[in-house]
Amino acid sequence: MPKRQGLPWRCGYDGGTNVWSTPAMPTSQLIARQLQDTALRYFLEVVRSGSISEASTRLNVAGSAISRHIAHLEESLGASLFDRHARGMVPSAAGELLAVHAIKSAHDAERVVHDVLALQGMQRGRVRIAATEGFSMEFLPRVISDFSALHPGIQFNMGTYPPAEATRRILHGDADIGIVMSRGAEKDIRIEHLQPSPVMAVMRHGHPLAAFKQLSLMQLKPYPIALPEPETTVRQLFDIACSRQRLEFEPVITSNYISGLLGFLRHRHDGLTISGEISVRYQVERGELVSVRLKDRGLDLRNIEVQTLVGRTLSRTAQVFLDYLKAQLAGPAG
Q: For position 275, which CATH number holds?
C-alpha cells in the first residue's frame, strides 16, 4: 500500500483477511497544511525562500513539481507571479497580492487546528516568537518557563534576530508574536503593547556609582566602558545624547553581543555598560548587577514593542501567552 511521505502510519488486523493501514495522528502544523491548497503552499514557500531550488529542499518536493504548480497558478490567474532574476525569484505585484492571501490562509488553517486542540483545556498548542537578543538572553526563557509550568502541553519556538528581521518574520507569518525595541511605524504591524525602555547604566555592586538613583553621562566619563554596536537603538540614543553635550567616550570594548558586554563587568570591577532594564532585570533581581537610570535628555526615547500581524487572529494558545507576556513585561521596574 502506498504511504504518504513524512507521516507515521498505524497498521491493524480486522480479524478477517484484511490488513488496514492509516496515518497516525499528525501534528497540528501538518493538519493545517492539509487545509491549504497545495499550489498555494508551494507558491508561498518560493516567496519565503526566494528560489524554487531552496523551496524544493525545504518542502522535500521535486523542483519540477513546484514549477508546475506555480505555472498552473499563473495560467489560472492570467498573470505572472514572480519576476525572475539571476539571484532568485521576487514576487511581482500580482504575486504580492496572492502572497497576502496565502499567508492568511495558512494562519487561519493553523489557528483553527490550535483552537480545536485548545478546547481540551490548553493542553496542546504552539507559539512562535521572534525577538531581539536583549529579550532572548534571560527574560523570555524565564517567562516561557513560568508559563509552561502552568500549561505543560504548550510548545514554543523562540528565534533571536536583529530588529528588522524579527518584524519581517511577523509580516511573513513565520512568527506569531514579535518583541523588539521600537523602530518606527511598520505597515501591517499591530502594536499589542508599548512600554518605555530608557537607557540604564549597568555596573557591579560596589562600583562608586552604584549608590546613585540617577546618573548623568558626565559622571560615567572617568570609568572604563563597554558599548553596544552603533546599529543598536540603545547605542544610537547614547551617541546622540553625547553629541548634544560634546562628550566623547572611548569604549574598551564594542560588541554586538550583550552577554559579552556584561561579561566585561565581571572582570572589571570599575567597568560600566549601558542597557535597557529588561535585558538585566533578573541579574539585578539576583543582586549580580546594579542598573541606574541615565537622566540626560533623549535617553528615554525608545519603547518596547510587542508586535502581531494586522488582520490575523491569534490562536487561543498564542493569545493567552500574549496576555501573560504583557503582564510580565510590566514587572518590577517596568
A: 3.40.190.290
Claim to verify: residue 113 and residue 204 sit in the same structural domain: no
Residue 288 region, left (φ>0) first, then alpha (ψ -120 to 50), else beta? alpha
Q: 234 is in which domain, residue-wise?
A: 200-294
d(CA 142, CA 228): 24
* Last residue within a domain, chosen from 81, 100, 119: 119
Number of compact structural domains in the chain: 2
Sign, CA dihedral 242-244-248-253, equals: positive
- Report pLDDT for 100: 80
pLDDT in tens, 273-287: 999 999 999 999 999
- The C-alpha cell of 330 is what? 510590566
> Under a CB-based contact definition with an 8 Å cutoff, are residues 38 and 73 in contact?
no
Contact (CB, 8 A) for 156 and 125: no
- Facing residues of 21 across strands? 11
- In degrees and rounded to multiples of 5, residue 119 shows phi and psi of -60, -20
